[in-house]
Design brief:
Number of strands: 17
Protein name: Cytochrome c-type biogenesis protein
Distance between the termini: 101 Å
Organism: Candidatus Methanoperedens nitratireducens
Keywords: Membrane, Transmembrane, Transmembrane helix
Pfam families: DsbD_2, Thioredoxin
Transmembrane segments: 364-386, 398-421, 433-451, 487-508, 520-543, 563-580
């Protein structure tokens, strides 16, 4: 029995002291976890970081008691330790950590914004850390105020003052009037503390109305949503916004917004400089609010105009780089291009020196000639000539109709080319989609031609169906020898043939859009090649060739022509898919 007191003391130490230690320990719990799984922490001692705003802690009720008597300011990060019960915390301690304040809550464009930061250190002695202030993110997720600096602090309250200029609420900045967050972070020994304050940006001539403002962050948003740290875009997103770049060139992406006055001043200067570089520079204009929005977000441009060289967001020229001095803009852009590395990527038009697709006036003309010669052409010309000769007996009328028919084709392709050029120029993001659509259409037509070649070996009629209305219309036009109607028929016929000529057409239009002097010559040569078969056959019929022989030749050789046309179309589709043309 004399050892009983010793045993009781040992049992007391073994059981009671650990229990006391366990009951006195606080567990650090993130606010988000406390809100998502409250039952797990019911009755437990916890510590959590909360931001005090609107005279309270959003989502969590912290009871006022003898341990919570401190008067806190809004936008203060606070560490609250206490017992969690029924969605409330009974605090044992409430300690402010980080606070951010501004002189007022409403600011206008280009106004001085003074930010005061208080950091409450409980570390004994002096310390070092890093202070960051950023926020007012535009439509492209770019913080328009941003500053980071090293700090030294002591135990207690440490104050820091920073000064910014508020951005303009205008189209060029991609910034609308509304409520925005300013984030403050302090990093000490690898741990980051963060808080935020919301301010309202308004135009000078506007009546401030919260109902009319664009609220970007609401009071119920978790603290993490105001963190400046953003997850990098995935490779998949990058591939979606990929813009082709040819080998041996420098890619210049020019972002603009319709209605932006700064863009209207910068655009002529940029375009003129790009034309002076010719084929050395691949120049792309992108509407940052429309098809280029995802790409603008990827680069996080500060507004428009903005220029990105070789897809490197670090090599970005913004309005702040030249502040309206277009001569300075030209010098900066010229220097950036001259210093930029030449692309070594797989080319879109030309490949290695051994298998390069060489463009020249003769080669473009030959491609156009081959694209313009097909069985449909022989059939329609033979039909036109037969009806004209049977009606008037004059071969001169055949020549006139053929000339107007040809002119209709040429003018239509010219108008379509100019139209496509404007579309691609205003919305370059559509070019890839149009090209992919053409690949599919041309591939289907190629397979159909190959199928029809096999079909004609066993049948007399082709699987291609010519609408009877079109035949009747053609017959009516040729009987009346109506030149305007012949022009219309040529235009209509050119649209029927459009998929056959569209592949190389985009290649030629791209050269014209980049400002290469020979591009227009290539366009003219290609169009002339397309219409030349019509002129040659029409002229031959006008000067004595029997239309019946043309029709007989068509019937005898149509299997071969269908097969050759099909293989050609499939080849074009494959080459377009591979990016060779």
């Amino acid at each position: 029995m004399k050892y009983l007191p010793i045993i009781l003391v040992i049992l007391f130490v073994f059981f009671l002291i650990p229990g006391c230690l366990e009951s006195s320990a606080y567990k650090d719990v993130p606010r988000s976890q406390l809100l998502s799984d409250p039952a797990v922490f019911e009755g437990k001692k916890i510590c959590t970081d909360l931001i005090y705003e609107n005279n309270g802690f959003p989502g969590i009720n912290v009871i006022r008691n003898q341990n919570f008597t401190t008067e806190l300011k809004n936008a203060t990060l606070v560490t609250v330790c206490g017992i969690y019960r029924s969605g409330r915390i009974e605090p044992n301690s409430v300690n402010p950590v980080l606070a951010i304040a501004t002189e007022k809550n409403v600011y206008y464009s280009n106004e001085t914004l003074r930010v005061h930061i208080d950091f409450y250190s409980r570390i004994d002695g002096d310390g070092n850390g890093k202070l960051g202030v950023s926020g007012i993110r535009n439509d492209f997720d770019r913080p328009l105020i941003n500053k980071t600096q090293d700090i030294t602090f002591i135990k207690g309250i440490n104050g820091f003052d920073l000064e910014f200029t508020t951005p303009s609420c205008e189209e060029c900045s991609a910034l609308s009037p509304g409520e925005y967050a300013i984030n403050a972070t302090v990093t000490v020994s690898g741990k980051t503390f963060e808080t935020y304050k919301k301010i309202t940006l308004a135009r000078n001539d506007s009546n401030i109305s919260k109902n009319g403002s664009e609220i970007l962050q609401s009071n119920n948003t978790t603290n993490q949503q105001f963190n400046d740290t953003r997850i990098a875009l995935t490779n998949e997103t990058s591939e979606t916004n990929k813009i082709p770049q040819s080998d041996g060139t420098i890619l210049v992406e020019y972002f603009y917004i319709t209605g932006c006055q700064k863009c209207e001043q910068a655009t002529p200067v940029v375009e003129a400089l790009m034309k002076s570089y010719g084929s050395r520079v691949s120049f792309v204009k992108i509407n940052a609010k429309e098809e280029g929005r995802d790409l603008a977000i990827q680069y996080r441009i500060p507004g428009t105009p903005s220029i990105v060289i070789n897809k490197d967001s670090k090599n970005l020229i913004s309005y702040e780089s030249y502040n309206g001095d277009t001569a300075k803009l030209e010098d900066i852009l010229k220097e950036a291009i001259d210093k930029a590395p030449i692309s070594k990527k797989t080319p879109e038009i030309a490949q290695s020196d051994n298998d390069k697709l060489i463009l020249s006036v003769p080669s473009v003309f030959v491609v156009g000639f081959l694209a313009g010669f097909n069985p449909c052409l022989l059939a329609i010309l033979a039909f036109i000539a037969s009806v004209t000769l049977a009606t008037t007996g004059k071969r001169r009328n055949v020549l006139l109709i053929v000339l107007m028919f040809t002119l209709g084709i040429f003018v239509t392709y010219l108008i379509v080319g100019i139209g496509l050029l404007r579309i691609v120029d205003e919305a370059p993001g559509l070019q890839a989609g149009i090209k992919n659509f053409l690949v599919v259409v041309i591939g289907i037509l190629g397979l159909w031609h190959v199928y029809d070649a096999n079909h004609l070996r066993k049948n007399t009629e082709s699987s291609f169906y010519t609408p009877k209305a079109f035949i009747r219309l053609t017959e009516s036009v040729t009987k009346k020898v109506s030149l305007p109607a012949s022009f219309f028929m040529g235009a209509l016929f050119s649209l029927i043939k459009a998929p056959c000529v569209g592949a190389v057409y985009f290649l030629i239009l791209d050269m014209v859009r980049k400002g290469e002097g020979t591009g227009y010559l290539y366009l003219a040569a290609y169009n002339f090649g397309v219409v030349l078969p019509v002129l040659v056959l029409g002229g031959a019929i006008a000067f004595g060739l029997d239309p019946g022989k043309v029709e007989k030749f068509r019937k005898d050789k149509r299997v071969m022509m269908r097969l050759v046309t099909g293989v050609t179309l499939l080849t074009i589709a494959v080459l377009m898919y591979m990016g060779i043309i």
